[in-house]
Specification:
By secondary structure, the protein is α/β, with parallel strands linked by helices. It has two domains: 5-209, DHBP synthase; 224-300, Rossmann fold (3-Layer(aba) Sandwich). The protein is 30% helix and 17% strand. The chain contains nine helices and 13 strands. The chain has helices at 5-13, 35-45, 60-66, 70-80, 116-125, 145-152, 191-198, 257-273, 290-300; strands spanning 18-20, 27-31, 54-56, 85-90, 107-111, 129-130, 158-159, 172-177, 180-185, 224-225, 235-240, 250-252, 278-281. It has a nine-stranded mixed beta sheet with strand order 7-1-2-6-3-5-4-8-9, sandwiched between helices. Helix 1 (5-13) crosses helix 5. 52% of the residues are buried. The mean pLDDT is 95. The structure holds threonylcarbamoyladenylate and magnesium ion. Its EC number is 2.7.7.87.
């Protein structure tokens, strides 16, 4: 059953967990200032405590109160918020975003989501809401209400149905620390879109790292084989483009990267439910949004880091 954004905001204020729809993936949300509620997120997901959470806020003003955006962060926020974009900045307000939420780091991950339901919940609640993807740790992120309920619905006291997530991949994560920019997780906001705002992004910037990227991720139960030409015996092929496998299992029959991103996690889950011997995936172009899709696929196939 689905609750209203107001009921979800009340649950947050009460120290309870919620399912929060966003345009990227469904999140498992809690009051970022409430260490007990935040601990319940780590427990429900089976998430290692060294992996910090993203704080979601209603607008740039609210973001600037918890993190030091600086000129680079402000320029990026101006273009990409609200949207599928997360900034890592020095922490300013350690009371509003508790230590556990930040895994003890002196930085904070901040996002202003664009989904109207998420915005309503954040406006009604009034403070930062930590929300990792609502999957159990290591599994594909949920991009539909049903999948979110199946993953971590047991742990929440309110869940809001926001429909299928339009982006379907987690937000792009960019750190702005010490006057330098690093791309920590590719997403719907592409490398070239970011570079259009702040100039060329360096690789391997010292002191910029994402603890969550060190763990196994996005994996269904069936083994995933990427850059596959055709399905082998017992495999399901998630195709891309015309004439690649069965239309029912196509990420995008027309070869559209946006459509493929929106379908990826849902189709991985649906394929997994049929208990195939494996899930094969057609080659996906690497430019633009393809960088993020290939990143998730490599990780689903077991290549970490
Ligand atoms: O689209 C999204 O970002 C979704 C929706 C619900 O907003 N959330 C999400 O959260 O994907 P999660 O917890 O699954 O991923 C957060 C990522 C992790 O890789 C984590 O390590 C990184 O952000 N992160 C969080 N705080 C950080 C920090 N202070 N420094 C570096 N990386 C950080
Ligand atoms: Mg996640």
């Amino acid at each position: 059953m689905s609750q209203t954004p107001l009921q979800a905001a009340r649950a947050l204020a009460n120290g309870d967990l919620i399912l929060l729809p966003t345009e990227t993936v469904y999140g498992l949300g809690a009051d970022a200032s409430n260490a007990e509620a935040v601990a319940a997120i780590f427990a429900a997901k089976g998430r290692p405590k060294f992996n910090p959470l993203i704080s979601h806020v209603a607008d740039v003003d609210a973001a600037a109160k918890i993190g030091e955006l600086g000129p680079l962060g402000l320029a990026l926020a101006d273009v990409f918020w609200p949207g599928p974009f997360t900034l890592i900045t020095p922490i300013l307000d350690t009371r509003s975003v508790c230590d556990l939420a930040r895994a003890g780091l002196d930085s904070v991950a901040i996002r202003v989501p664009a989904h109207p339901v998420a915005r309503e919940v954040l406006a009604a609640f009034g403070g930062p809401v930590v929300a990792p993807s609502a999957n159990r740790s290591g599994r594909p992120s949920p991009t539909t209400f049903t999948d979110a309920v199946e993953e971590t619905g047991f742990a929440v006291s309110a869940s809001v149905d926001g429909g299928p997530c339009q982006v379907g991949l987690e937000s792009t994560v960019v750190s702005v620390l010490g006057g330098r920019v690093a791309l920590l997780r590719p997403g719907a906001i592409t490398r070239s879109e970011i570079e259009a705002v702040v100039g060329p992004i360096e690789e391997g910037v010292e002191g910029h790292r994402s603890p969550g990227r060190l763990t196994l991720h996005y994996a269904p139960d069936a083994p995933v084989r990427i850059e596959a030409g055709a399905a082998r015996d017992g495999e399901i092929l998630l195709g891309f483009g015309p004439d690649a496998g069965e239309p029912r299992w196509s990420l995008s029959p027309s070869g559209d990267l946006r459509e493929a991103a929106a379908n990826l996690f849902r189709l991985l889950r649906e394929a997994d439910r049929t208990r195939p011997t494996g899930i094969a995936v057609s080659p996906i172009p690497t430019m633009g949004l393809g960088e993020a899709i290939n990143d998730r696929l490599r990780r689903a196939a077991g290549f970490v880091g």
